[in-house]
């Protein structure tokens, strides 16, 4: 393609160019939250991220007349294909200037790479899987994203759809403002009846014993989501790797485990919205001033995000979700927080979306997963 060159990332210098390109794309976007550069390096490290024990990734940079103008990654995830009985590859970490030629060159290169890996379809964006950041923002650009959620320019949707990518699935992000809020009686009644009928007890997950606690969570997690579209079971290594990062910001009062007769049957993970701090660390570095902003800002966070909520399949119609939501709401209200996001929820997960809407939440962001044939 005239004037456009696609290069494969091959060294540490090019990796840093790949990581830092968003600072160019989002330089005038007040709602973009810069990632910490050290976190991005860790995520993309093939030797340290256990995701790469069962997956491959190739990163590409786009240059136009010698200037860096885009990036994308091609990804294979054999755990996904085995579990979903599929043969797809993925694209992720997509960024581009508003230029259809650049966009087309990036996607043609990724599709060529995926064909070379024997794949017959492509899904994305996944950064790098549904267990990480996923989806392209298509509605809700007026506010910053919540922790571990995506943000992108408005024009990305047109670039992808004009290229020919089709919607595979939408993901909803719900927000609930709890200032001057009263938990609906109906929700309270469902939670209390469910708790009594099934003899459910709740306790906090202990951060100091996080490795053993997360093995209990993993058992529920891989059972609870097994029927969901796009679900990929996490390996023990993956969930422990993620936990090492999350425990730095997690609040034990918002990490809940439900037990029935001493056996784990559900869990809820709610995190402080650390993006309220990161949005002010514009260079993506903790030093020299970022660490101070991080440490002093943690107590000032006003919102949380319900990142995961799962119940084992046998009890998914027993109202256990309401138990978690009621308890999380109570604790957030006691802290005097402003509210929180529940995300993401598949668009066709009607029971969950209806339940969330029932207690006054508004769908404030929509993310889209695209697909294409190869």
Structure, described:
With 374 residues, the chain is of the alpha+beta class. It folds into two domains: 4-170, Aminopeptidase, CATH 3.40.630; 176-367, Aminopeptidase, CATH 3.40.630.30. It has helices spanning 12-25, 37-44, 78-84, 100-116, 155-163, 185-197, 210-224, 236-246, 275-278, 290-297, 320-334, 350-358, and strands at 4-8, 55-64, 67-77, 88-96, 121-124, 126-127, 133-134, 136-139, 166-177, 200-204, 255-260, 263-272, 303-311, 339-346, 362-373. The strands form two sheets. Strands 1, 2, 3, 4, 5, 8, 9, 10, 11, 12, 13, 14 and 15 form a 13-stranded mixed β-sheet that branches. It has a two-stranded antiparallel sheet with strand order 6-7. Strand 6 (126-127) and strand 7 form a beta hairpin. The chain is globular, with a radius of gyration of 21 Å.
Layout of strands and helices, then pairs:
Elements: E1 4-8, H1 12-25, H2 37-44, E2 55-64, E3 67-77, H3 78-84, E4 88-96, H4 100-116, E5 121-124, E6 126-127, E7 133-134, E8 136-139, H5 155-163, E9 166-177, H6 185-197, E10 200-204, H7 210-224, H8 236-246, E11 255-260, E12 263-272, H9 275-278, H10 290-297, E13 303-311, H11 320-334, E14 339-346, H12 350-358, E15 362-373
Parallel strand pairs: 4-5, 13-14
Antiparallel strand pairs: 1-2, 2-3, 3-4, 5-15, 6-7, 8-15, 9-14, 9-15, 10-11, 11-12, 12-13
Helix pairs in contact: 6-11, 7-8
């Amino acid at each position: 393609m005239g004037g456009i060159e696609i290069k494969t990332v091959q060294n540490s210098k090019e990796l840093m160019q790949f990581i830092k390109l968003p600072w160019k794309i989002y330089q005038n976007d007040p709602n973009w939250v810069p990632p910490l550069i050290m976190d991005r390096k860790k995520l993309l490290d093939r030797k340290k991220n256990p995701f790469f024990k069962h997956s491959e990734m190739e990163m590409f940079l786009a240059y136009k007349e010698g200037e860096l103008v885009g990036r994308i990654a091609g990804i294979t995830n054999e755990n996904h294909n085995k579990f979903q009985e599929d043969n797809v590859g993925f694209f992720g970490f997509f960024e581009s200037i508003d230029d259809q030629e650049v966009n087309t060159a990036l996607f043609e290169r990724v599709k060529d790479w995926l064909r070379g890996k024997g794949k017959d379809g492509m899904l994305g964006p996944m950064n790098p899987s549904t267990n990480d950041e996923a989806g392209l923002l298509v509605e809700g650009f007026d506010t910053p994203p919540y922790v571990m959620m995506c943000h992108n320019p408005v024009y990305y949707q047109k670039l992808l759809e004009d290229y020919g990518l089709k919607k595979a699935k939408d993901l909803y992000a719900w927000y609930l403002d709890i200032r001057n809020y009263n938990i609906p009686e109906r929700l309270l009644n469902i939670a209390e009846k469910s708790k009594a009928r099934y003899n459910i007890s709740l306790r906090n997950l202990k951060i100091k014993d996080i490795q053993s606690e997360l093995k209990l969570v993993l058992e529920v997690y891989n059972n609870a989501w097994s029927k969901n579209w796009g679900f990929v079971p996490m390996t023990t290594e993956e969930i422990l790797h993620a936990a090492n990062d999350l425990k730095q910001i997690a609040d034990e009062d918002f990490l809940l485990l439900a037990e029935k007769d001493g056996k784990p049957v559900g869990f809820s993970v709610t995190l402080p919205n650390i993006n309220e701090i990161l949005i002010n660390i514009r260079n993506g570095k903790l030093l020299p001033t970022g660490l101070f902003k991080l440490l002093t800002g943690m107590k000032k966070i006003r919102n949380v995000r319900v990142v995961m909520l799962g119940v084992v399949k046998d009890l998914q119609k027993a109202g256990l979700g309401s138990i978690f939501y009621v308890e999380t709401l109570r604790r957030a209200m006691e802290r005097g927080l402003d509210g929180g996001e529940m995300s993401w929820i598949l668009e066709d997960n009607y029971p969950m979306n209806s339940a969330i809407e029932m207690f006054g939440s508004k769908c404030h962001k929509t993310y889209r997963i695209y697909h294409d044939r190869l």
